[in-house]
Amino acid sequence: MAMEIPKEKILDLLKQRGESDKAEQADQELPDKVDPDRDRGILEKIGIDPKDLAGNLGGLGEKLGL
Question: What is the DSSP string of 15-57?
């Protein structure tokens, strides 16, 4: 089963990093529910490693409250 992450969580993360330009790009390009596998290309383009989102071993998954 694919894990979906609300787009808002990713936008918040980018804004916390001070990357509001990338947050704006992500807002336009990502669907409301982001699947790290399906949306890998977009995530990589905005500087987020999909593996960090998919794994709840800390890292971004933890920051996003997943």
Answer: HHTT-HHHHHHHHHHS-SEE-TTTTHHHHHHTT--HHHHH--S
